[in-house]
Amino acid sequence: RREPVTITVTGAAGQIGYALLFRVAAGAMFGPEVPVRLRLLEVPDALRAAEGVILELEDCAFPLLAGVEVFDDANRALDGASVAVLVGARPRTAGMERSDLLAANAGIFAPQGRAINDHAAEDIRVVVVGNPANTNALIAQSHAPDVPAARFSALTRLDHNRALAQVAKRVGIDPGHVRRLSIWGNHSSTQYPDLSNVTIDGVAGHPRLADETWIRDEFIPRVAGRGAEIIEVRGRSSAASAANAIIDHVRDWAGGTAPDDWTSAALLSRGEYGVPEGIFCSFPVVSAGQDWQVVPDLELDAGARKSIAASVDEILWERQVVQARGLL
Ligand code: NAI
Question: Which side of the chain, N or C, has fewer Cβ within a 10 Å radius?
Answer without folding.
Answer: N
